[in-house]
Amino acid sequence: MAMTEVALNFRRYGDTGPAVLMLHGLFGSAKNWHSQATSLAGDFSVYAVDLRNHGASPHCDQIDYPSMAADVLALIDAQGIEQANILGHSMGGKVAMQIALQAAPRVQKLIVVDIAPKHYPGHHDGVLEAMQAVDFDAHRTRQDLDRALSGSIPDPSIRQFILTNLVRDADTGTFTWQLNLRAIVANYARLATAPQGQPFQRPALFIKGADSNYIQAADRETIEMLFPQARAKVIANAGHWPHAEKPRVFAKLVGDFLRGG
Fold first, then answer.
1. Domain extents for the chain?
2. 90 catalytic, yes or no?
3. What confidence tens digit (pLDDT) does each residue in 17-46 have?
4. What is the CATH number of domain 10-120+192-258?
5. Catalytic pick among 24, 54, 89, 240
6. Catalytic residue from among 39, 90, 212, 243
7. pTM (2 decimals)?
């Protein structure tokens, strides 16, 4: 399948200092990074990015890590950025790693949030099935949609995260999914794969939520092989979204690392 770059939607915070690109995870968007981007905007030019098929970025049939990395590199080029700091969470962390492994000269520092450079078994199947099953004609309010999803997605915090993808059609007044659900379902196996490329020899920081099992002790060897300068930090009492669960702790770790501390 030929690779075609798409022009990504983004929001910029701050206009001075080194560039920092923030990449969200699956089902996420640039909005997930508003608080963290704001906290860095005094010292950095921060770009919160919607990856392809997410947020307000274009929809396309192909979604895999080389394609998403190419999109972000095209954005860097379009903004006249010679070298950027790249931060990514979960799926966005894999995109960030792919960029570093395939285009190291464009990356100053790398921050990977709660994901390892490995294949993961599919564990979003239930969420994807629930999202596909939603009858938007029958459920006209967010409360109705929340109730409709509650049987398949019992965790209210996960439901609220999924519901951030709702947009209302201006003509019909009905909701729909803003993300490209069809393409994500069709390419889901590709999103489980590991990033690939040559070892990244510049500084890297891996941040893990202590209560999350996404990064395990057995992953250390692979991380050190691909990212020889990697250091690791664990945030206590946090799960897979440490930037949302412990925002102040997370912001300090990121700020210290980017500033050279």
1. 10-120+192-258, 125-186
2. yes
3. 999 999 999 999 999 999 999 999 999 999
4. 3.40.50.1820
5. 240
6. 90
7. 0.97
